Amino acid sequence: MPLRTAVVILNWNTRNFLELFLPDVIKFSSGIADIIVADNASTDDSVSFLQNNFPQVRIIQNEKNDGYTGGYNEALAKVDAEYFVLLNSDVRVTEHWLEPLIELMDKNKEAGACQPKLLAYDSPDTFEYAGAAGGFIDKFGYPFCRGRVFNSLEKDNQQYDDTIRTFWATGACMFVRSSAFKKLNGFDPLFFAHMEEIDLCWRMQLTGYQIFYCPNSVVYHVGGGTLPKSNPRKTYYNFRNNLLLIFKNSHPSKTKSILQIRFFLDALASIKFLLSGGIGDFKAVWSARRDFNKLKTHYEKGASNDFLNTGEAEFMIYPKSIVWDYYICARKKFSSLSWKRTEIKG
Questions:
Q1: In degrees rounded to 5, what are phi and psi of residue 97?
Q2: Mean pLDDT, to the nearest integer, of 153-180?
Q3: Helices (H), 174-230
């Protein structure tokens, strides 16, 4: 009989991470959660390695690599659990990492997703880029975190050890209510990878769910396990998908003006890449904008803005420009932002 919680690790050619981190997942999750590896058509020996060394782990083999979005959508359709934990293969979990997450979700029935404290594997006293102490977004669609604004990472001095509502939960270790995931048809497959978790969390809030950060659960993330931060392909997905999630989810009265301003901000970002020698990243920004203009027609006749709780989602958006705060006002820490709305206790 399946347990209430299923830890599902999406793997694509990361046998080295499975060997390094899967033993702790088993050690600290057994009896609490079913442990599953969903393999995204790896071409290394990941599957045979799992079969020979971890027979207690269930393996789901996807026929092709449809990225983070398609891979999880396909795999989770085959998993029966109340809660899904979407765990990257490059994450080290710790003792009692699951129990606080389960307790938070049990206590808050309106919670659609939550995340643990995410610290850097190579620098354990520092928050990790991909989620830190919970994700937020500004009025122009730029994501940031408690503990990480753009590339400025804070040390963990227990300054963010309170349970609060956030805007998005990290895809590196995302604890999801399965009924909410299924209600929204999972991840948007067009995203493939990057920012799909923000899109899902935004859609959750538009349909009445809330997102939380749980500091009593701690994990350590390597980061860049599939694409390093400097990879132009990652730049492409980040810019393209960021524009898509704005187009899909922002309030209809604001979408046009946001996208107009984003054109100039993206142009500035591309120039910054070019001046720093990032020709590939410069090209990626404009490729992303070109493809966004093609893909957005996929949503124009849909019901992406036809939700009931737009005001609730708007309340959780940072009402200023994080770009202005960071680059002009030199506010490099989340705690330096003049915003009181985030003090929403769980």
A1: -80, -30
A2: 97
A3: 178-183, 196-206
